[in-house]
């Protein structure tokens, strides 16, 4: 029994000495004043953002695009296509009359990209110092057309015939480019005063289209692209050659944009062959 106890005591001491020896080869972290947690953090890779991460973050942006109402259908399709190759860019659109959008930008609306249905509004913003230099592009062309409800029996066949309509829908020339083009046409034809006697003015071209499509107006003047988007109207005439100025859609980056590089990239994309093909599908033409 005594031998057995002695053997256990020796075994215990041997275990203790072995532990101490190992500990001397691997000094305690706390003995050096450093905790295990501190060393773990020290040995971990740096949390500094890598160049790849930095580039990815730089590409993340939110862009507010203010565009003429007649661009809505095309822009909504282009938004989906742009997301495929630019998933970090969030596009938000506001559509309306070009004049109203112009005023909103002048009043400080946080718009990044502006696309109007006429040069007039873009020129005014340029002259006021609201457009970023060297970003404006005169991108698209449209046509002005006379429309009537699909089931119309008035027999209209030309712009001169519009005076036969009891109620005429036009865009408000104070802020809607298609309304301004309409007045140019009727002035050239010498019938503006007669037309005004029967006019109801819409806040944008979409409202004019809706009034004619629903039969609330017997005739109206819109863009060819708008007429193409509705199955409830028919085009009876295109504006006579020389009766109005060329319908140009310019686009540019707003000077106060907080995402100028992303905005420039989107404007560049809208100038690409793929984007132009989408615009053409909705009736626009590339301005050359």
TrEMBL record:
Keyword Signal: yes
Keyword Thylakoid: no
GO molecular function: metal ion binding; molybdate ion binding; tungstate binding
Keywords: Metal-binding, Molybdenum, Signal
PROSITE patterns linked to this entry: PROKAR_LIPOPROTEIN
One Pfam family hit: SBP_bac_11
Gene3D superfamilies to which the protein is assigned, alphabetical: Periplasmic binding protein-like II (3.40.190.10)
GO BP annotations, alphabetical order: molybdate ion transport
The name this protein goes by in its record: Molybdate ABC transporter substrate-binding protein
Organism of this sequence: Anaerocolumna cellulosilytica
């Amino acid at each position: 029994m005594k031998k057995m106890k002695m053997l256990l005591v020796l075994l215990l001491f041997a275990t203790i000495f072995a532990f101490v020896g190992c500990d001397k080869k691997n000094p305690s972290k706390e003995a050096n004043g450093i905790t295990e947690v501190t060393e773990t953090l020290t040995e971990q890779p740096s949390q500094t953002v890598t160049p790849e991460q930095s580039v990815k973050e730089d590409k993340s942006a939110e862009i507010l695009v203010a565009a003429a109402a007649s661009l809505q259908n095309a822009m909504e399709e282009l938004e989906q296509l742009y997301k495929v190759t630019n998933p970090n860019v969030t596009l938000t659109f506001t559509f309306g009359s070009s004049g109203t959008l112009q005023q909103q930008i002048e009043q400080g609306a946080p718009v990044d990209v502006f696309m109007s249905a006429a040069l007039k509004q873009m020129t005014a913003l340029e002259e006021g110092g609201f457009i970023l230099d060297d970003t404006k592009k005169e991108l698209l062309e449209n046509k002005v057309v006379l429309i009537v409800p699909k089931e119309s029996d008035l027999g209209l066949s030309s712009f001169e015939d519009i005076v036969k309509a009891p109620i005429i829908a036009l865009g408000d020339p104070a802020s809607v480019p298609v309304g301004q083009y309409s007045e140019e046409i009727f002035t050239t034809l010498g019938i503006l005063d007669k037309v005004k006697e029967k006019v109801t003015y819409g806040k944008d071209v979409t409202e004019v289209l809706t009034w004619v499509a629903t039969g609330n107006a017997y005739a109206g003047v819109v863009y060819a692209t708008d007429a193409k988007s509705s199955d409830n109207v028919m085009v009876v005439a295109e504006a006579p050659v020389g009766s109005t100025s060329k319908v140009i859609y310019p686009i540019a980056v707003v000077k106060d944009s907080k995402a100028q590089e992303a905005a420039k990239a989107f404007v560049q994309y809208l100038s690409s062959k793929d984007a132009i093909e989408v615009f053409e599908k909705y009736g626009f033409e590339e301005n050359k």
